[in-house]
Write a structure and sequence with these properties.
Helices cover 41% and strands 14% of the residues. The protein is of the alpha/beta class and 381 residues long. The protein is globular, with a radius of gyration of 21 Å. Residues 1-5 have low confidence and may be disordered.
Amino acid sequence: MAALQSGRKLRTVFVVTRHGQRTPCFVKEFNVLNEALQDDLLTHPCHAIVPIELRSLEGGPAPTSVFDKMHKENGFLYGGTCLSGQLTGKGADAQFRIGKWLRKRYVEDDKLISQEYVEEEIFVRSSNMRRTVLSARSVLAGLYPGHHKQKIPIHVTTFEEEIIQPKTAYSLSFRNQELVESKEAKKLGEEIGEFLQTDTEVDVFCLADNVLSLEELGLKSKVMESPLWNKAYGIAKRFMQSYAVGTNGREREALQSGFGALLDFIVTNIQGVLEEKISHKLFLIGGHDQTVLRTLQSVGLSENDLPPTNSKVIIEVYDKDLETSPTQHVSVKFYRSEENQLPQKEKDFTVEEFIKTVSPYRITLDEYVQRCKRFDRNNQP
């Protein structure tokens, strides 16, 4: 492992973030709070807003979001008017602080990018979902405070080619297989259903996701008063690990299916920047908890806990320098909160070491799409 030296020339940075605090995603499992969530929860502070334009990766109009359509079809939460899975004002403000942190580090200190927005310097990509798009918007507001000159493009793609938040049957199979086969989860779901006085078995994973999202908003759930909660959280955490990074010998396959094409995007752009074929100095990738988990796992920084909202992975790419550093380097750092000034985990590589480390999990976009099509076709009812 190569030790990084001072005086290196920073060439480009990839920032992989989890979105800010959101409303619960699963309406069916939402009988965990004795109050309604109203729309004012979704009001974003003015300082966390800049003009944006959604674009396809090719630069044209953005494709329709299957995810946002799903949230609308889910309906409103617990008798209120607040939609499921939406970025809250608290989340927008936290993402704004991430942007301020990036500005201090890469505008003021390292002077990697300009004080004002320059389109050739920054590339923003998000999963095609409202909460990640608006989270990226808030990061940009912190990175470029007071920016109102032009719309900043945020790039999204189609459901079939979604590589930040894969939702194909192929990717979901890793969690669903364990969930269906787990007698422990089924029994616990029945017990929690009795505690909540529901007529149906509770999906432990969905329930835990709801409870955690409420907790991050500072709201208490009655489920947490039950002695069953710690067991439910443990099961949900295990299922998320299985979904995100695989278990029982399926780790490589899971990372390829859930992260391989995004990893290919990152590596391809690192090479393009170092070869001076690409001008972008900062890549902002708006993602989810599993995006953060998979990024860490791919470089050998395993994380056993679920990444909270506003966690981020920073991948810094340094050029060689004849006096201080004869090789090109990559530094990977993990921050669990937007408030962290020091990383919780970090690892350094030469560029060659980095590419070699991630190569077992890297697949092309075409390979990913074809693999998903084969899986979906073979598993049709």
